[in-house]
Task: structure prediction
Amino acid sequence: MTNLQRYFGTALPAGAAPCTGSRFEHLAGGGDRPEVADRITAEDLVAVQTLSVTVPASVALDLLEGPLGEELSSLLRFIPRDIDMADAASVHLTDDSPADRAWKLLRDQPRVGWVTAGKLLARKRPRLLPVYDRVVRCAVGRPSSFWLALHTALREDDAALHHQLLRLRQAAGLPETVSALRVCDVAVWMSHRAADHACP
Result:
């Protein structure tokens, strides 16, 4: 059984459960479905909890009902939801792009930080923006821009890595709603996690 199958529960022995993170992209139909793609919902806030982070209540309420949510929505409208990172132009990922501004807006909220900000955006744009946490950072290092470094890697050699991730997805029996970025994240996370990292 591969790490992907174990994480998503596509080939588990009787009585075993998949990681809770297997519900991240699928909870309530996904964060990028058209009717909710440009706003944060309560389901998005629960979804990031499956990846072991929590948005503080005051920030969550502001995202759902306040000016923070309105400001984030205005940025989400300019972040494509129907394109893979491998096919995207770098302009979608550079400093001061709408995605970068959305990430910084979330990161700078009280007790949110870079990990939770990234996971919220990955929930809203799973094909374009990756999950990036401390385990993945430990595995891949600290490039000046993780987004741009991954974008370059996915596009090299006629998108060889992107296509390899899609083949891994198919071999693990995962639906197409699991993006190539998420396959990459889970594969790296599962192979690199230390013994004291719980399975989110």
Summary: Confidence is low (pLDDT under 50) at residues 194-198. The two ends are 19 Å apart (CA to CA).
